[in-house]
Structures are given as C-alpha cells and as structure tokens.
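Lecture 7 notes: from sequence to structure.

We start with a single chain of 429 residues. Read the sequence below before looking at the structure.
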Amino acid sequence: MSTTVEKIASNKVKMSFDIDAAKFDEAMNKAYLKVRGQVNIPGFRKGRAPRKLIENMYGEAVFYDEAFELVFDEVYGPAVEENKVEVVDRPEIDIQEIGSGKNLKFTVEVFVKPDVTLGEYKGVSAKKESAEVTDAQVDAKLEEERAKQGAEVPVDDRPVQNGDTVNLDYAGTLDGVAFAGGTAQGQTLKIGSGSFIPGFEEQMVGMNVGEEKDLNVTFPEQYHAEELAGKAVVFHVKVNSITETQLPELDDDFAKDISEYDTLDEYKASIRAKLEADAAERVQNNFTNAVITKVVENATVEIPEAMIERQIDSMMRDFEYRLAGNGLKLADFIKYTGQDEKTFRAGYREQAERSVKAHLVLEAIEKAEAIDATEEQVDEQIAKFAPQTGKTLEELKATFSEADREYFKADAIRDNCIKFLCDNAQVEA
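Now the structure, written as tokens:
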C-alpha cells in the first residue's frame, strides 16, 4: 500500500491511496461472506450460493461497496494519524480503479484545520477605560444594601405616594367588556416601578385605603396581545392596603448588622475596595477583548464550513442545557419565538464564525511564539475546576489521564497567549 498527501488549499488536502490487489481481493472475499445471505439464487439455500455464481449473475460489482468500506476503514484512519492530518469534515472519496486482481486506487479530499496567515499581533493598540470609582457610586451601592434591609410598614393615615407598595383589586374593560387577563384580586404593586402599563401607577397616587376609582389607560402599540395593542381601556381599581418601606439609619449599628465591620466608614471603605476591584477587572476584560478582536481581524484564515457548523452545534447545546435548567425545551422555545431551526441556527452563525477564527488565530500565535505553560500553571487551571467535583486538587489529579491534563494545559497556554498579547499591546491615548 502507498499513500501520498497533497495540500490543495489552505484548508484542504488530497490523499491518494494505492492498495495491493491481494489486499482488495481479501476484502472482496469478506464482502462475499457478508453479502451472500442477502442474495437469492435459484437452487441454493439463502447464503449458500458460491461467490462465482453470484458474480456471474449480478456482476462482481455487487461486492464492491462492502469491500471498499472494509479497506477504507482499515487504511484511512491510520493514514490520517501517520501524516498528522487534522481532519475537520467528512472525506469526499473518488475511486479511480477497483476490481478483482487489480490494485484499488482512490483519492480522498478532506477539509482540514486551515492555515492561518497572521497579521500584526504584537503592539496592536486598544482603548483602556478608567477604573476610577466615584463617591456617588459608593453611595449608590450603600443605598442598595440599605434598601435590602428595609421593612414594609402599614400606612393608614395618608393616601398612596410614589414608592409605596399597594395591595389592590382591578378589573379591566375594553368598550365596556371585560378582557382576558384584565382582572385580579389581592395584587401587589409597587408604585413607580413601571410594572403596569403607562399611566396606571401614576393615577393611583393620591388614593386612600378602601377607595375605588376608574383608571383610563392605553396599551402600548407593541403590546404582546394583539387584540389590546394600542387600545384605550378602563381599569376599575380598589386599594386594599398601603405599605411603605422604612430604611435603617446609616450608622455604625447598620454596618455591624450587615457586615464584618464595626463602623460605617470601614464598611464604606470595603464597598469602595470591592467596586474598584470589579472596575479594574471589567476594564482589563474590555481591554483584552479589544486586543484579541484587533489581532483576529488582522489575520487571514479560510474556515471550513464544517468547523462553523460544529461551533453552532456546540452553542445550541449550551443554550438547550440552560433552557432545560428552567424546565424549557429548545424546540418549544424556537416555536414560541416564531422561528424555525434553520433561522435559529442562522442567528448563531456570525458569532460562531468569530469564535472559530479567534481560536485558530490564537492557536497559531501560540505556535509562532512557542508559548507554553508550567506545571504550576496547569495545576492552577485544575484547581479552578476542582470545587465543581467536590475533590481536592491532589485527589482530582490522581484520577486524571494524560489527555485530561493536556486539556487543562491547553487552557493554561491560552491564558499565557492572551497575557502575551496584552503585555505587548499599546494603550490608546
């Protein structure tokens, strides 16, 4: 057997196979033993007819498909592995010569992981935002934490105000006729939240407990229920009760109650430190993404369609898994959003193509710069994963195969590559 490999495009190779006649004849005999049970020959029990008789009646080509598959399965995989061909799609097969007593000759054209032509990747420039945290941001976060500690207190000596929580009954009518979903009792509504259609909450301001009133409102033009979209309706409402949120005083006691700190100043300092850390991480992530985007844009690569389709498959599986966590099925979600599967997949295409290209470009940079990872860095990657398994780092490592460790090593190398790009990037003024 002889095999030659020829690169015919940046993302495609042609493999030519020349198989000894004796090997193909052996496969033909195996094919006969497998196929004979499917052939009826008068005078012979099914599966007992001699090979020559079957070939005389149907032609020896009756065994070609099965014999070729036997040979192909035996030679293709090892040839791919031996020649280090990184296949990404199913092969296209062209048989040049086949038959008993002849060498089997065929070619295979197959898409492979494409070559990447790198553009500028060292010294690209990107903007880096300010990570400064203002006093107003600290105060806003403090108020957010304060609001969580608020208590709802009944109100019976004044009418509804903006910010109050109201328990109400309501009944909606369109041209004097009740409509579906427009009636409820004991409903809770925070005035000013914008939970109800425009104008509803505003007209409740000034109402007292026990008071009833007709509210005239108009549904938005883009409302989900077409029969109500843009329609003027009347809601008859009754206020059952009113509560207001009472917030705790911002003092040292407040800080002690909700944190590990003894004073309000210490607590505010901790809020600032957390906001600054979050801001620094966000700014660095945005800078990193901008750098990678430019590096990828500067590169040229011809991506096989199969790689994009596989990435779309992966993205859809991830989305399906998240839906399942909420008790939903992907097919139902697609239907509810007025799409079909083809349209839904198309929505992922651009993102999938960017993702595949980014992976290929970063992989090419890793090779070009001989970027590697230390054992300690690989252990750090495994340590991030360990809590999900309920095992310690050492326990998890003890169960790993070499392939498992290579998976985490690839992650460590990718992190080092991205750090390399960012360390060599320029910050735009």
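The domain at 264-427 is CATH 1.10.3120.10 (Trigger factor, domain 2). Keep this in mind for problem set 3.
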